[in-house]
Amino acid sequence: MNAPFPLSSEAEGKPGLQLLIAAPRGFCAGVDRAIEIVERALERYGAPVYVRHEIVHNRYVVETLKEKGAVFVEELDEVPDGAHVVFSAHGVPKAVPKEAERRELSYFDATCPLVSKVHRQAERQIEKGQHIIFIGHAGHPEVIGTMGQVEDDQMTLVESVEDVARLPFGREHSLSYLTQTTLSVDDTAEIVSALEDRFPQIVGPKAEDICYATSNRQMAVKKIAPGSDLVLVIGAPNSSNSVRLVEVAERLGTPARLIQRAEDIDPAWLEGVGTIGLTAGASAPETLVREVVARLGQWRSVEERTLSSAEENMVFKLPRELVD
Ligand code: SF4
Q: Which residues of 67-79 are buried (b: 16+ CB within 10 A; e: fewer)?
C-alpha cells in the first residue's frame, strides 16, 4: 500500500486516502467544440436538433443534451425532412454529408478538426496512388468515418502487429499509413515499427495522427499510476481514449477500473488501498471527477494532489453559421 505522507485527516475519524489527480484529464478541445455546436444549434433553431451517433462517448453528456432537446439517432434515415442535424466528433464517411445534401437537410459537422486532418491526409495519399494501411479499432465510429473517405479497396485496417504480418502486400507496392487519433501511443509505435520492417517503402503522415489530448492523458496516467494502489478512469466502455488509459495504468502494474459515474465504485475496491490515482477520458466532464472525489469522501478522508504533466490551451473554431 502506498502511503507517501501521513494524512492529517486520519485524525478526524475516517481512514485517510490520498488522491493523485492527473492533469491534463477530461474534455479536450474537440469534445468542447462538438458539445458547443449542439448547444448553439439548439439555441438558434430550437428543439429538436438531431445528432447522428452519440456526439461524444459519454452518457452524462448525451443525457444532458437530450434534456435540452437533442435527439440522438444512428442513421440519417431517422431524421425527418427539414430538420437540423449534427454529425458527431468522431467523423462520418463521405456518404453521410452527401446524403444530407441530397435530402436538403441542414447539417453541422462536429467532426474534430484533428480527425478531419486525417481525412484530408487520406485523400492526399490516395491522390499519390498509395494504398493506405489504417491503424485503428474495427467498428469504432472514427474508423468507419475515416475508412469511408476513400473507396473500399483503397484502405486496409490493421489492429495489431499480427495483422501486419498477414497483409497481402509486398515491397513493390506503394503504401502509406495513417492512424486513429485515440490509440495507445506505445502500441501504435510497435505496429508502425512492424509496418516499417515489413515495408521499408511505406510512407507515414508528416505529424503523428494520435492527437495531443490522447497522448497527454496517457502521459499523465504514467505519472499517477506508479504511486497509486488503484487507478480510476472516468469514461465510457466505448470511449477509445478512456479504455487506453486503463491499459496504460495496468501496464505499469497498477490495477485500474473504468467507471462511468461515482456510483460505479464498489467500496470493496478500496480495501487495503491508501492511494488512488484518478483521471478522466477526453469525453468525460470535470463535474464527474468532482462527483467521484465527493463519493470517495463519504468513505475516507481524502487528500487531493494534482500531478500535472502538460498544459493544454487548444481551442477549435466553431462553424461560421453558429458564431454570432
Ligand atoms: Fe479531437 Fe483528440 Fe478530442 Fe478526439 S480526443 S475529439 S481527436 S482532440
A: eeebbbeeebeeb
Catalytic residue selected from 39, 78, 127, 142: 142
Mutate to test the pocket of ligand 1, among 54, 143, 182, 241 (most ligand atoms within 8 A of CB): 182
| Structural domains of the chain ordered from first start | 10-27+212-308 (3.40.1010.20), 29-112 (3.40.50.11270), 114-210 (3.40.1010.20)
DSSP H/E element including 205:
none
Q: How far is the centre of ligand 1, averaged over its atoms, from the C-alpha of 255 (Å)?
A: 26
**25-35 pLDDT tens trace:** 999 999 999 99
Task: Output the CA 111–ligand 1 centroid distance in Å.
Answer: 9
What is the tens place of the pLDDT at every residue in 63-83? 999 999 999 999 999 999 999
pTM of the model: 0.94
Q: Among this protein's residues, is 142 annotated catalytic?
A: yes
Looking from the CA of residue 115, the nearest atom of ligand 1 is 7
State whether residue 108 is helix, strand or coil. strand
Which pLDDT score is estimated for 324? 78
Closest C-alpha among 4, 12, 25, 6 to residue 292: 25
pLDDT digit string, tens, across residues 87-104: 999 999 999 999 999 999
